[in-house]
Every structure is written in C-alpha cells, then in structure tokens.
Amino acid sequence: MILLAELQRFLLHPSSGVKEFHQMPPAWSDLSASIAAGGTANAKNPLSQDVVGSWHQALDRLTSVLSRQIGNHVKLVMNKADAIDPAQRQKTALAELASFSCLRSELLVPDAAAPVQICADFGKRALSFQMRLKAPADRKSTKARLSWLLRQLADTEPADLHVRLLWPGRSPSTQYPLQSLLADPEIAAADRPGMAVHSFEILLVRDLGAKFGQRKIIISELLGSASSFHDRVGARLAAWRARPPKISEGKLEPVSVSTEAMRDQVEREALDRAG
Fold first, then answer.
1. DSSP string, 193-232
2. Neighbour order of strands in the sheet with 126-134
3. What is the pLDDT of residues 202-244, one digit of tens each?
C-alpha cells in the first residue's frame, strides 16, 4: 500500500518528486580510468569521496526500482553504525574502496532465500551479484546436494551465471558456469572426491570493460542486472530447512518415555554390554 501511494503521488504530481538518479559524476569515469591504468583509490581523495557518494545514490535508486517491481520494500543491509550515521557509512565504503578497489553492498529482498551481495569492482571493471545458500544437510553427497540446487535453476537463463562451491575445512572453493553444471553435474564432485560441499554461491557476473567507466551506462547496467538476477535467481531459490524430528519407533506412547521406562532401558543396555 505504501508503494502504491507513493506511485500515485508521483504520477499525479511529477514535478513535486525528486528527479531519479540517472548517471554517475565525472569522478566515476576518472577513478575507473585511473585504477584501470594501475592507480589506487585514496580514501582522502575528493575523487573517491564523490564516487562513494554517487554509489550510495545509485543504491537508493536500485532499491526503489526493485521495490516497485516486486511490490514490496527492498532495503539495504547495513551494520548499526553505518545505518545511523551517514558519515560513518561513507567512511566504511571509502576504506573498502581504498583497500580492494571495489564497492560492496547487500540487498534484503522480502522472503528471499538470502541477501543479495552486490560488488562494483573497479579492478576487474565488472558488476557482480550473488547469493549464498547452505547445501541441504539431509543429502550426503555433493552430487545430491548440487542436484537440489540445480532443480531450482533448471528453467532459468544461464548466461553469465556461475555457481561457486564451498568445501569443508581449508579446501579452496571451486566455480563453474551454471550452463556447464546443468549439462554435466558430475564435474563438481570430480574435483573433491570423498568430500561434500557445504554451501553454494550463485553469481551473476557482468564484465563491462570500458563501459564500466561510462557514467550513464553503469547505472543502467546496475539496475538491469539487479532486476535480471532477482528474476533469474533470487525469485527461484528457496533455502534448505531441516525437517522436524520424528518420534522414534517404540516411543509413540508417553508411558514409553516415563522415568521408570527410561531407567529400565538403561539397565537393559548395561546388561547387554556386560554380556
């Protein structure tokens, strides 16, 4: 209802609304070119500060667009300090930009299986969107766990989609194009025989090249890719949940688990062990 009311006000009084953010500032192109040439982002540089500010504006536009598309409120995930203090939010993003040459954020879509992690990577000149799901613990093998995921994505368009498999311990992750896994799921288990994958990351990667630095194109790519990721991935995935435990055979009647009955069982088991 809130979204509908906002839309009605905009349609009836378009001049009273704020113009939607549609392009990055010149600093975006300048920083993109600098990093592509081997430079770095300095957190104290006004160029970096302009880029972070515009990124946050772009995210506001993104959440607004997605909210209208799905008819429900999509919001950004932030820690408490960043949420209550815009200056701290700016500082956090600047530090990450300076350290990793990328900007990261998370979207929370109502009832989605997991938050959507977004990354604008200046080094790779790429946008990526991903969700992480736990593999179903009631299936023992990698093949069975992967089949659970692939069934959910069987009818989606696989272009630019990838699946990253996360393994126990310190074993490094492995990654495959979704199209390859749909054609031959066996390739995932072949790399880690005897191991069972514990989580999946499903990614949409858009390698933009020179387009990454173009001020209007990066906005349209961000919005279009976010919508595509939700339609092709987010709206199709359901998180695995353990089934509730069943009552054990022979314990259906409450009397079977009374204190006396349990004591008798312990005594029987002790006698059995004693021979």
1. TT----EEEEEEEEE-GGGGG-HHHHHHHHHHHHHHHIII
2. 75-77, 102-108, 116-121, 126-134, 199-207, 161-166, 174-177
3. 999 999 999 999 999 999 999 999 999 999 999 999 998 877 8
Contacts (Cβ under 8 Å, ≥6 apart) of 217: 208, 211
Helix, strand, coil abundance in the chain, percent, nearest 5: 50, 15, 35
- Say which residues have a Cβ less than 8 Å from residue 105's Cβ, sequence separation at least 6: 55, 59, 76, 77, 117, 118
Q: Are 188 and 174 in contact (CB under 8 A)?
A: yes
pTM higher than the cut 0.85? no
For 116-147, what is each residue's pLDDT tens digit? 999 999 999 999 999 999 999 988 999 999 99
Take residue 179 and report the two structure tokens written for it.
């199209």
The one-character DSSP state at 168 is S
Strand pairing category for 174-177 and 199-207:
unpaired
Domain ranges of the chain: 2-234, 249-275
Enter the DSSP assignment of 246.
Answer: P
Q: How many CB atoms lie within 10 A of CB 204?
A: 24
Residue 1: its pLDDT value, please? 47
